[in-house]
Amino acid sequence: MDITVAKTAGFCFGVARAVEMVEKCCKDTQNKYYTLGPIIHNKHVVEGFARKGIAPIENIDRLKEGEKLIIRTHGVGREIYDKLKEKNVEIIDVTCPFVKKIHNIVERHHKEGYKIVIIGDKNHPEVQGINGWCSDAAEIFATPEEAENANPHYNKVCVVAQTTFVQEVFKKIVTFLKKTCQDIVIFDTICNATEERQSEAYELSSVSDVMIVLGGVNSSNTQKLYSICKSVCPTAYCLERIDDLPQGCDFGSKRVGITAGASTPAVIIKEAIGKMENFESFEALMEESLKTLNTGDIVKGTVIEVRPNEVIVDLGAKQDGFIPAGEISDDPNATTDSICKVGDEIEVFVVRVNDADGNIMLSKRKLDTVKTWENVKKAQEEGEVLEGKVTEVVNKGMIVNYKGYKVFVPASQAAEKRDADLSEFVGKVVAFKIIDINDRRKRLVGSVRVILDAQKKELQEKFWADAAVGKVYTGVVKSITNFGAFVDIGGVDGLVHISELSWKHIKHPSEVVSVGDSIEVYIKDIKEDTKKISLGFKKAEDNPWEVVKTKITLGEPAQVKIVRIMPYGAFAEIIPGVDGLIHISQIANRRIDNPAAELKIGETVEAKVTEIDWENKKIALSIRALLPAPEVAEEAPAAEEVAEVEAPAEEATEE
After folding, report:
1. In the chain, fewer beta carbons within 10 Å around the N or the C end?
2. 279: confidence class by pLDDT, cuts 50, 70, 90
């Protein structure tokens, strides 16, 4: 056997840099580090770091302030950086410098009004990260056909490429874009190391009988190397490790070429060379290691292919196993690709061995069902809280789906109140406990109320530990009666009497509050023996008798509205909640017998504030005080008065 190893096989500059930086983080035992997604697309490297305490996460929402996050080689969009700064999470950025350069190009040209076109795989994390630097507004093409179908006609276009993309395809897409777009700027951002590897892989495949490409199944550059090798050398294998080589391979005296993706560690390449040089003993060891499977076995395997109707699993046996789509999940809406992905380790139940096609039929659903039942029994023993979705309301209760099992929840155990409308729960996820199991019939009975009661008891204990007169709470109106409203202030209900709901006179509490309203109340009184609580809702500063003090002045006029007319006068509203009396004698500047003849309800008049008794809440008003005094006609003197006046004059004349 003639073995030739590509000179460029193994870690590229960016990957080597990233691995070195993460290795340094592994030595820091004082802090907790995570990586956003796998640091590189090689599960052996990722698993190695996980064993050292640095594991990947898929969502930054779980991070806490002060924790440290390693941005992987593929890079991320601007939004991720912004969110991490808001959460005060320290960033260790190992993004490949060549990828970071693309981020800068895209961000700059996007701000200048260019339409961004990325040539690459839209599902690859590197491409998704690049798109994040132009507000996810880029057009992404992986093939010339995709570009032609989109038929883009842009005036200002900036074109970049995924660093691991195939150079030949990139050139074809660019040639097409030049024909349809104007003012186009093109950045060939395919990494030099990628071009060299692809070129060398092509040349090595041309002179080899067998090509072995080592790298992660999710590695884009590895898959592109494999595609190139396969196009030239039909006998080509893409393997994560040399141990994955199919049994029965007879290379004899053939020429074998070995290359590897940019994220493949040197140790995996060396391992491949060593085992290929001792191929005969290696093949014998593989044969010995193959499993013998029987119906009913529970085994682990690796997903190697996901099809719409089935999933193919490598079980380490002579044949691969398959899981029919119907045996993937209990969820009728689940699809094979939503449950399994290539590279996933999966535990399955062996349904049948050596069927007519020589395959092994497997079931994930059946194993999940067995495990779920055992977990349910354990949950009942330990009082564990489970969650499931309410699927329907049935006679005397409702059904909750828990991982394929139907849990019957009686109406008495479904809600806090026995007469609750259970239809409101359909489609919602509820927490419950298993209170009864029929192991033989596989029937389950659950209770939501037991959890609600426990939560309420906990809230009540917390409430009574802190309750005090005057303490303010934000509560929820639970029910309304003629005499007031009951408000839940944390597992405990208190009564707001109708007189406490408004400073104005109201006929019914519903004029002020409704069931479900969130209101602020305070404790007015606590009866320790009966655990009854009286609540206040009115605020002192809203007391109209306090407000009116700022609105009127003794001796000054005020605009008032007539609200009631009595035989002895009229009551006028000064502000809502405060009325003053205009006595009948103060309505007009003359004597009147009937106030209704002078005033009308709803009429606005001007009256002088003539008296204020704050203590007894009485205010006297006068319209008359603002009216001009009536004119008095001069009366003629009486006849006798004239005679008396004139008599002396006559006497004087006679003298």
Report:
1. C
2. low
Other CB atoms within a 10 A radius of the CB of residue 390 amount to 23
Nearest Cα residue to 301 out of 289, 313, 317, 292: 313
* Cβ–Cβ < 8 Å for 53, 26: yes
Output 318 or 381, whichever has higher pLDDT: 381
Q: Which of 397, 348, 377, 365 is nearest to 442 (CA)?
A: 377
Residue 608 is inside which H or E element, if any? strand 604-613
| Segment 644-655, tens digit of pLDDT | 434 343 333 333
Say which residues have a Cβ less than 8 Å from residue 652's Cβ, sequence separation at least 6. Answer: none
The single residue listed with the structure tokens 């996820």 is 429
Within 8 A by CB and 6+ apart from 194, the residues are 12, 163, 164, 165, 167, 221, 262
Question: Closest by alpha carbon to 364, among 339, 327, 338, 336?
Answer: 327
Instruction: Tell me the catalytic residues.
Output: 126
- Identity of residue 5: V
The number of beta carbons lying within 10 Å of the beta carbon of residue 342 is 14
Cα-based torsion angle of the residue sequence 553, 558, 563, 566 in order, rounded to the nearest 10 degrees: 70
Q: 425: which DSSP letter?
A: G
Residue, of 300 and 645, whose pLDDT is higher: 300
> Cβ of 395: how many Cβ atoms within 10 Å?
5
Residues sharing a CB contact under 8 Å with residue 473, sequence separation 6 or more, in sequence order = 489, 490, 520, 521, 522, 523
Q: What is the dihedral of CA 130, 134, 138, 143, to 10 degrees?
A: -20
Q: How many CA atoms lie within 13 A of 66 on its CB side?
A: 2
Higher per-residue pLDDT: 282 or 134: 134
What are the structural domains of the chain? 98-190 (3.40.1010.20), 298-368 (2.40.50.140), 406-466 (no CATH), 467-542 (2.40.50.140), 549-626 (2.40.50.140)
pTM of the predicted model as reported, rounded to 2 decimal places: 0.41
**Distance in angstroms (rounded) separating the CA atoms of residues 446 and 425:** 15
The backbone torsions φ and ψ at residue 573, rounded to the nearest 5 degrees and listed phi first, read: -80, 120
Contact between 455 and 488 (Cβ < 8 Å): no
Give the type of residue at 622: S
| Token reading at 148 | 């032609």
Q: Residue 76 carries which side chain, given as an amino acid letter?
A: V
Range of lowest pLDDT (226-240, 341-355, 435-449, 563-577): 341-355
Query: What's the pLDDT band for 291 if we cut at 50, 70, 90?
Result: low
| Predicted confidence band of residue 187 (pLDDT cuts 50, 70, 90) | very high
Summarize pLDDT for 75-85 with one digit per residue, the tens. 999 999 999 99
Q: What is the rounded distance in angstroms from the CA atom of residue 179 to the CA atom of residue 176?
A: 5
Say which amino acid occupies 439.
Answer: D
pLDDT tens track for 129-169: 999 999 999 999 999 999 999 989 888 999 999 998 888 89
Nearest CA among 290, 217, 214, 277 for reference residue 251: 277
Strand 68-71, strand 33-36: pairing: parallel
Give CA–CA dist 220/128, Å, rounded: 13
Q: Tokens for 621?
A: 């008003």
Between the CA atoms of 301, 306, 310 and 311, what dihedral angle is there, to the nearest 10 degrees? 0
Q: Which residues pair with 493 in a beta bridge?
A: 488
